[in-house]
Design goal:
It contains twelve helices and 15 strands. Helix content is 36%, strand content 24%. It is an alpha/beta fold. The strands form three sheets. The protein has a seven-stranded mixed β-sheet. Strands 3-2-1-4-5-6 form a six-stranded parallel β-sheet, with helices on both faces. It has a two-stranded antiparallel sheet with strand order 13-14. The radius of gyration is 20 Å and the shape is globular.
Length: 347
Amino acid sequence: MSNTKLTVGVIGAGRIGKLHAENLVHHPNVNLKIVSDIQSEPLFDWAASIGVPKITSDYKEVLEDAEIDAVFICSPTNTHTSIIREAAKAKKHIFCEKPISFDIEDSEKALKVVQEEGVSLQVGFNRRFDHNFKKAFELVQEGSIGTPYIVKITSRDPSPPSEQYIKSSGGMFMDMSIHDFDMARYVCGSEVTEVFVHGVSLIDPVFSENGDIDTAIISLKFANGAIGVIDNSRKAVYGYDQRLEVFGSKGSVTVNNDHPTTVEVSTETGVYRDKPKYFFLERYKDSYIDEINSFIQSICHERPVICDGNDGLQAERIARAARESFVTGHAVKLESLNKSARPFSLG
């Protein structure tokens, strides 16, 4: 890492914005100068406790500050593209939480501005930086398992989100499964060409009441001929269930759950071990740090980011196809997606 020090601002200080800010203040190559949130009053004590010198309710103060080199966009999804365009025109490098938007065409327009202005944009698919999934990716890339045939991903949350969250989330495919769509492309090394979905609401009627689902099986076809399956659930009573397998011509690579300890107790009544880590902030704590470090290194050393705007766009396209498949009951080819289709909706 060089001795370059980047001055950074964070836009949006909800749960994920605060997490990024708390990681940024400890980064040796970062000066976190300002955090913006429309509800700024509750942030002053928190900011003082971690050493953030300035809090504002106006995100434009971040973009208009000539000292700011890069911004972290952690505001609600429906604000992302407008802030991306403004940040790019202000010549700020951009880290944006997923998804870029709920509208493919809007995302494409924002990414075009990023390209025209010559700034970097990284999308917050933090699971790429998890030590387990990264190792699996490297093994597939090295050819250790030969040609990939099947990708299997299990992703289940420990408990459902609130109804307020469900209403603004964009639905399971855009909010939750989108991480798995990115992971599928990442580990298989190929674009998804077709999606078919079986989706239901089994856990809580609040999902169906809001046009959403809580349980899904998603089948994928890849351009390289491989096939994939993702199973999602909003409630796994035993913890945060995150598993992966890539099966190929020479073998397979498997990622199992992380546990608080590897201790296993065997008695006459059974064999016991810890449940999987319960919450995503616990499971992926290090990956959030590593994705920030990767972004900062990319800017300091003027090299491409690992997870760029096109990665975000392609995951959105798969999510769109998944939604259409769920609604129509048919497989959807990604090449058939209408880029001018109406914005993603739960209705």
